[in-house]
Amino acid sequence: MNSFAGFAWGWAEWAMTAGWQFTIVVAIVAILCLGLRYASPRLRHSLWVLALLKLLLPTSLWLPWSLVNWPIMSTIAAVPSFEVLERQMRPSASMLPILGGSQQAGIDRGQSNEVAPTQSGSGRWVMGLMSVWAIVALAYWGVSAWSYRRLLRDVARMPSIDEGPLRIEFERLVQLLELTCVADLHVTDQVSSPFLLGAWSPRIVIPKAMIDELSSDELSVVLAHELMHWRRRDTWIGFLQVLVQGLFWWHPLVWWAAAQLQHERESACDDAVVRSGTVLPQQYGEVMLRVLTVARGRSSMPGIQVGVFERGSHLQQRLEDVMSFHPNKRRFGWASRGLLLLFSILVLPMAPRAAEPEAALSAQPTADAEQNQEAKQTPWPQLIETEPKTGTTGVDAGLSEIRVTFDRDMGKGMSWTGGPPLFPPVDKSRKAQWIDDRTCVLPVKLKRGEYYRLGINSTSHQNFKSTDGVAAPSSVIAFSTAGSNAATERRAKVPTIVELEPANGATDVDSATIALRVTFDTPMGEGMSWTGGGEDFPQSRGGERAHWSKDGRTCILPVQLNPDHEYHLGLNSVHHINFQSKWGVPIEPVVYSFKTRQE
Fold first, then answer.
1. Residue 165, Cα to own-chain centre: how many angstroms?
2. Which residues is 110 bridged to in the sheet?
3. Residue 350 near residue 54 (C-beta atoms within 8 A)
4. Nearest CA to 323 among 269, 277, 274, 260?
């Protein structure tokens, strides 16, 4: 069950992150399309297609020049993910100051014993939300697939037009539009509007009423419109709509963007037909009105079909575009292609600079500047910057060196710790070196799609020392390179506490409580660092040892508590970082305190 809970937390973070990223993209596309009202409708259509494609891209997609990293977008980019909000809801994680200074270690060792897993209330809430999302998404896709299959079956039973004047005109248009696959042409009295169906084997359905009421020239325009949809592969875009609308049925802007896409799809098809020279603009506009009249103004085109009229298309605007058509205007040329490329580069990579959310969680407010300055004065050197930062995903595999910077002048020794297969391959043509008194670089040769982990100092290797001989505390740099799949990217993730029992800051804890429990959002390694000491550290329960649950997410510390007593301890600290994920990424140090009630 806890494995499912972890998956649910990952889903929630993905859904919230993708949601706010898509909101920004839609706003930008809407503004662009408003400014490009008199540009090529194919350009506007392509922008809306890219907007929907954004929802299928990794939410961690990041480029240093993406729009979200510009100063004007910094506030929006700082919107926390679902995981960050969950941590901030509880005083048990990141709301209290980080444990620092010199202190006694309470428990700092590895364990392998196993007990039954626990499950947090908030985890059940998130799993419930994900279950509802999955049920609605599957139901939407199921109904769409059933409707599509039924429609395919019904169309296959419809009479086909294999000969006669209409078929001859149809094949003439196929040759004129240079189509290699000839669509099946069907006629029926079961629909009111013509449409195109199919992704690999196209089928065009014409209502019998239109064959009876429209002239041969008017029917030729209708066929040209449907064939142009096939030439543009618009049915594929219809399948994209159904996929995205199922995934994000809960996001209102997804449905609005899909409606805008449908309108621009029809406008782009209108423009393509008129631009092909098969019909004059005035004649095309008249046929649009005739088709709408014969169809009684009705259309039932879902996303998997395309027709002359679709829900979401604006007839007046389409008519204005057609009647004002000029062959030398509104072309989809190099300028339009360049704008799409620029949009893809600047807007689609919407992730904030990787690993900054973890940094934001660890940063704690101080009472004033003097207190903040005092907190910085430690006897040991502190890392103030690493490149890449721990938790970073999408690191450029062309990165040639890993860099660490300390807060004071350092000696010339170094201890880059770790080993294969996670230690980054070293570029042996260059040497690790200090480029100034505080910054050291390690030359590397990274590969795409890989997870890497290395350490700064360790228990037995402490050559990163200040000029006065004090060793820097052990720390970890973990990241994944661009091209990594979701599973590889999760390895670099900094573990998050999803529940503490008793809750952090609780003031009415039962002294009969026999164990403290901490649950993380990812499987953890076997080590642990419950830090603290003295009377404020909970007494151990005779003969019982701290241990991990079977799923590796919950650590249980057996304790014996006294009534009316305040306890203070820590999870990890500056010098003890054995609470690490299965892939060796330590949690940020956390202060944990609670008080038992009087008996």
1. 53
2. 527
3. yes
4. 274
Query: Do residues 65 and 345 touch, judged by C-beta distance below 8 A?
Result: yes
CA gap 219, 196 in Å, rounded:
15
Q: Model pTM?
A: 0.55
Has residue 265 been placed in a domain? no
Least confident of 86-90, 289-293, 471-475: 86-90
- Each residue of 152-202: pLDDT tens digit? 888 888 888 888 888 888 888 888 888 877 778 898 888 878 888 887 888
- Categorize the per-residue pLDDT at 260 as very low, low, confident or very high, splitting at 50, 70 and 90: very high
Give the integer Cα–Cα distance in Å for 593 and 598. Answer: 17
Instruction: With both helix axes pointing from N to C terminus, report the angle between 121-157 and 234-247 in degrees, rounded to the nearest 10.
Output: 150
- Tell whether 381 and 410 lie within a shared domain: yes
How would residue 296 be classed by pLDDT, with cut points 50, 70 and 90? low
Model confidence pLDDT, tens digit, residues 199-238:
788 889 988 888 888 888 888 888 898 889 888 888 899 8
**Amino acid letter, 516:** L
Residue pair 494/587 in contact (Cβ under 8 Å)? The answer is: yes
Q: Is residue 105 a part of any domain in this protein?
A: yes
The SS3 of residue 25 is helix
Phi, psi of 433 (to 5 degrees): -155, 160
In a domain, 221, yes or no: no
- Alpha-carbon distance of 15 to 34, in angstroms, equals 28
CATH number at residue 465: 2.60.40.1220
What count of other Cβ atoms lies within 10 Å of the Cβ of residue 175?
9
Q: Are residues 437 and 560 in the same domain?
A: no
Cα separation of 116 and 472, whole Å? 38
- Going 236 to 241 to 242 to 244, the CA torsion angle's sign is positive
Tokens of 451: 């997870």
Q: Which residue from 523, 528, 597, 594 is spatially nearest to 556, judged by alpha carbons?
A: 528
Measured CA angle at 31 (ends 27, 36), to 5 deg: 145
Q: What is the pLDDT of residues 419-469, one digit of tens each?
A: 888 999 999 899 999 999 999 999 999 999 999 999 998 877 889 999 988
**Half-sphere exposure (CA, 13 Å, Cβ side) for 3?**
3
Of the candidates 10, 129, 7, 18, the one whose C-alpha atom is nearest the C-alpha of residue 79 is 18
Structural domain including 370 reads 360-390+392-491
Question: Average model confidence (pLDDT) for the chain?
Answer: 81
